[in-house]
Design a protein that fits this description.
Layout: H1 3-6, E1 9-10, H2 31-55, E2 59-66, H3 72-79, E3 88-92, H4 98-101, H5 107-111, E4 119-123, H6 132-135, H7 156-175, E5 178-186, H8 189-201, H9 211-217, H10 220-234, E6 241-245, H11 249-266, H12 276-290
Parallel strand pairs: 2-4, 2-5, 3-4, 5-6
Antiparallel strand pairs: 1-6
């Protein structure tokens, strides 16, 4: 990984603070340089995906979390545009359905995990259960958890257990061959405001805006506290958080692509090598085709 991206990793060895994280950091890149670098990174990602798919040993789960208008959708579009759709799947999680509420909070996310050889992208994820649900604890009541009959029961011990459930879930996945990459796109409140205004001014972007976005913006400080807690509680050596400066979309996209590329390279992926018997069959098949 390039040095400018190493500082974007939170591994839980010391307390992380969002206040000390620069949302407009660009690592010495300008827009044109970043675009060129992204093109090269996407080419490399395509090659690595092919090896991942062929080897069939690992799966990759990429998680995107962010405030509204931070650029999750565009990051997925630009970074993943060079991947083979056959080996990639994207899930955008919304409010749980009635069926999903009848199971534990991890159930619907477990169902959406990628198979070995494939890359799964979760646009929002199981972390919503310690983010939006922490800002709006009344949402937890819809889960109908035994003993949780009112918001007063949703205390520090409740959240401690929920963080533990997430750590156990991710530890289980990594132990069984899933590589987890978690990205928090850290956009400033001022930049979010400008992007909201852009959506309102541009008729082609009006559909992206919701009045509910403004209501959630009013809870900015509570969300920042929830994100900070989640990052500190669930960053581990095996599945660390990557906090991406998101005020400059072109830098965020490059940082995400480089981090994914670096992680896949560390897997030392190789195309399967056929055994002696399989090679003999290939030779026989070749000779048969040439003899036609």
């Amino acid at each position: 990984m390039k040095n400018e991206f190493k500082g974007l990793i939170v591994q839980g060895d010391k307390k992380f603070s969002l206040k000390n994280h620069k949302t407009d950091f660009t690592g010495g890149y300008n827009k044109e340089k970043a675009k060129d670098a992204l093109v090269n990174s996407k080419i490399e990602l395509s090659h690595l995906q092919e090896k991942l798919y062929a080897a069939g040993k690992h799966s990759v789960l990429i998680i995107f979390q962010a405030m509204d208008a931070a650029g999750k959708d565009s990051a997925i579009e630009h970074v993943m545009s060079g991947l083979n759709p056959q080996g990639c799947q994207v899930y955008s999680f919304k409010v749980p359905t009635t069926e999903e509420y009848q199971h534990d909070f991890l159930w619907r996310h477990y169902k959406a995990l990628p198979e070995r050889g494939r890359i799964g992208i979760h646009n929002r994820s199981h972390y919503e259960n310690v983010l939006v649900c922490k800002v709006h604890p009344e949402y937890v009541l819809s889960e109908d958890i035994p003993g949780i009959t009112d918001v007063k029961k949703i205390n520090k011990d409740f959240w401690k257990q929920r963080y533990q459930s997430i750590r156990n879930f991710e530890q289980h996945l990594t132990a069984n061959g899933t590589v987890i990459l978690k990205f928090f796109l850290n956009v400033s409140k001022d930049e979010q405001k400008q992007r909201f205004l852009d959506r309102i001014e541009d008729p082609t972007k009006n559909w992206k805006f919701s009045s509910g976005d403004i209501k959630e913006r009013a809870l900015w400080d509570k969300y920042m506290e929830a994100y900070e807690d989640a990052i500190n509680e669930t960053s581990t050596a095996e599945s660390p958080w990557h906090v991406i400066p998101a005020d400059k979309k072109w830098f965020a996209r490059l940082a995400i692509s480089e981090i994914i590329e670096d992680r896949l390279k560390n897997l030392d992926l190789k195309f399967p090598v056929l055994g002696e018997e399989e090679n003999l069959k290939l030779t026989e098949t070749k000779n048969a085709l040439l003899a036609e």
